[in-house]
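writing this on my phone so excuse typos. first protein, seq and then structure
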Amino acid sequence: MTTSLVAEPEVRSKVEFVAHNLQNRAGIRLLMSCLLAKAHRPQVDIRKPYTEIGGADSYSGRTYDEQYLSAFIIEHGLPCNTTTAFLTPALRNRNIVLTPDVNLVGRPPRLYQSVLELLTDVYAGRVAAEDLLAETVRYLLVLRDQQRLRMETLLSQLEATDEAMPLSAESIITLIQQHRASPRSSRLLVLIVAAAYMAASANLGERVLPLQSHTAADRQTGALGDVEITLVADNNVITSYEMKDKRVTRNDLDIALAKVARFHGNQSRRIDNYIFITTEEVAVEVQEYAASLYQRTGGVEFVVLDCVAFLRHFLHLFHRLRMQFLDAYQKLVLQEPDSSVSQPLKELFLNLRRAAESQISEDM
């Protein structure tokens, strides 16, 4: 994996940038889909991955992405998004030739510009699609192995602190707050609530249903909220959580009210609670409006809770389960696809936890 398959240094540099850019993983799937199509059907114009363009030289990049590339990515554990690139805002509903002068309005701009230039390099015959595809996979394998090695090292270092005194509830809250302060961490709100129910399931007689994809809409999945809670003995949703990385408004409550009405219309059983978890301050008028919905809905409790206050109350109420919560949270964080919780965000948590537990050992 150390020998490059592409002679041109500029091309190699662009491929490495696209393959190793962790800010946006759609670019690498776009590139690989187009390269695969060109390698499979040499007569197509690699810059035309939309059949809507028309002509014998256009093709469906999304078909190559979903039908062939997805299985390859999963089989080899490649650090790519779990879903097609062609449904991202930059690429969906397009029917244009992808030339370097096209503005795909994606971030970072350099990523998409590099992909468009690479497609043109293949179109102009400066590099063969097969060679560029192999080079792209090579860079992904290098990145995969580097990430695995770092994770194994961090986990082994964390295991070395297992004999330390358990962290206090307040130390865990600080740890979670530090993790949540990172960019693109909105998914962590879901994992915090899910981990709480995983830790206390036996005590509560309730359990969390499998989490839906970070990007999936509730209408698409049929889910009522981001986290759904049921009784241990059945699958009927009794409590639904919706996470907001912003201030909750009356309009948010009205939307939730409509969702609950639709849900009740399709279910034989009503839910008990619809709970918003927010990272922002909860306005008094919003709390009062939420409370007023109980009578209006015939017995469904609506409430808006501050994330830190929720976590603090849980960890002190179930104080003996605080480390089970932390272990469950870690497990959920590491299990999430990189498109939901990035590799740097996973590594950050392990570093933060190791630092916190190491400090406990030093202070003993």
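second protein below, same order as before
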Amino acid sequence: MTKLTLAALTFMTLLSPAHAADDIITVPSTQSAKASLDKLEFIAAERGLKVYARIDHAAGAQSVGQELRPTEVLILGHPKAGTVLMQCAQMAGLDLPMRVLAWEDDAGKTWLSYRDPAKLGHEYSGLTCSFALKRINATFEELLKEAAQK
């Protein structure tokens, strides 16, 4: 009975919301959500990344008479890096291009969040794929740190 209880508790822990957030990388920002994404968009374009879209969820909420703290998404990437990753695991295309969420918490603090590309749940194998994942993650870490500062 003890082994069964332990197995059930382990399974429940894996399903908890805290575990679900393990694949999210979040960086604090010293600016507003809008200013953070403005800066990120500028830096990304300057470095040759392609900005595919920008979505203002707060404006969407306002358009239907509801309120939402500042929440925006920037969809961006580099076709060269993304292609290499999809050549390793084509299903990575479900998660590419990458998305960055700029959001303000209930205390007024701004954060930038994105999914860790290494934890997207796809089967990546081989040196090329490993290198592509590390490069994408390093690029995003660098971009977000820079965009988060005034």
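Residues 1-20 have pLDDT under 50 and may be disordered. thats all i got for now
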